[in-house]
């Protein structure tokens, strides 16, 4: 539907001029406008509903969709569900506080991560933006004692990691799109060999890594024409962990990944949130 609307936009691109900026609240479907053009409401409403049906998300400014002689910009103003990430942080913290053995932690953590990524209404856009040059690694939360960290990985079309390890446990859950992971293991002669077939993770899927169960892989966006996003939780401050990449020519190189962001999402401003049932 969006594609059809965008095609329509191209059709009218030459007529696309100052137009009106339209802002909408998804809850009741009513529009408020900066430039009140009430006569456009009958045209606007089906476009907005189509955008919602096609998966438009909170705070997402869609490309302007052309109408003959006008433009429409959709802007969702619904509050982000910070409570979802907050609850996930709490569940991982409890598992870590309880010194849960790794296997049980990965199992319970996977349940929590699956619940987190079952909804796509909580990740702020600033931590979901791809970069044309390389995949992005946005820190969303770090435990105060660096026992765990939560990261959004944003894959632009066709982007991939080098072969790398983690040295700590990790869980990977796909929030948008899909990714493909190829696992590796060290052969007796020291070289890496592929371990099994590539594993495709679609939206909603969760996978685990750790030195105990297999820690070396290469990951890529399954799509060449769209962004994919996965949410990861690791048993350390992953951006500061000293680990390795494995160049194709053999051997290994030390690396510390760092993060792509300098500021974190504020998920703790609870007083500003309306009660959530
Ligand atoms: Fe990885």
Strand order of the largest sheet: 5-6-12-7-10
CATH topology label of the largest domain: Jelly Rolls
Proportion of helical residues: 10-25%
Quaternary structure state of the chains depicted? single chain
* Record field, number of beta strands: 14
The low-pLDDT segments are 1-37, 66-72
C-alpha termini separation? 33 Å
Provide the succession of SSEs. Answer: HEEHEEHHEEEEEEEEEE
What is the total number of structural domains? 2
Count of separate DSSP helical elements: 4
Account of the protein in words:
By secondary structure, this protein is of the alpha+beta class. The chain has two domains: 70 residues, no CATH class; 174 residues, Jelly Rolls. Helices cover 20% and strands 27% of the residues. It contains four helices and 14 strands. The strands form five sheets. Strands 5-6-12-7-10 form a five-stranded antiparallel β-sheet, with helices on one face. The protein has a three-stranded antiparallel β-sheet with strand order 9-8-11, with no helix packed on it. A hairpin with a 6-residue loop joins strand 5 and strand 6. The longest helix is centred in the first third of the chain and has 16 residues. It is globular, with a radius of gyration of 22 Å. The two termini are 33 Å apart. Fe (iii) ion (FE) binds next to strand 11.
């Amino acid at each position: 539907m969006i594609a059809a609307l965008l095609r329509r936009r191209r059709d009218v691109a030459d007529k696309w001029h100052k137009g009106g900026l339209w802002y909408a609240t998804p809850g009741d479907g009513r529009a408020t406008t900066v430039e009140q053009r009430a006569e456009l409401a009958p045209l606007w409403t089906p476009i907005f509903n189509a955008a919602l049906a096609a998966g438009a998300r909170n705070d997402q400014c869609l490309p302007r969709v052309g109408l003959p002689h006008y433009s429409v910009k959709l802007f969702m103003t619904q509050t982000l569900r910070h409570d979802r990430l907050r609850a996930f942080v709490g569940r991982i913290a409890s598992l870590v506080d309880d010194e849960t053995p790794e296997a049980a932690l990965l199992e319970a953590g996977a349940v929590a991560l699956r619940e987190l990524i079952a909804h796509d209404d909580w990740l702020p856009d600033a931590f979901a933006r791809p970069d044309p040059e390389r995949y992005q690694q946005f820190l969303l939360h770090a435990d105060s004692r660096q026992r765990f960290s939560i990261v959004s990985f944003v894959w632009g079309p066709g982007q991939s990691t080098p072969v790398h390890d983690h040295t700590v446990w990790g869980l990977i859950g796909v929030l948008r799109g899909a990714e493909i992971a190829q696992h590796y293991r060290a052969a007796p002669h020291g070289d890496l060999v592929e371990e099994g077939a590539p594993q495709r993770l679609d939206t909603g899927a969760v996978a685990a890594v750790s030195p105990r169960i297999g820690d070396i892989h290469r990951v890529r966006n399954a799509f060449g024409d769209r962004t994919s996003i996965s949410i990861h939780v690791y048993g350390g401050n992953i951006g500061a962990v000293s680990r390795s990449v494995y160049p194709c020519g053999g051997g290994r190189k030390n690396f510390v990944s760092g993060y792509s962001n300098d500021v974190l999402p504020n998920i703790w401003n609870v007083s500003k949130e309306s009660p959530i049932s």
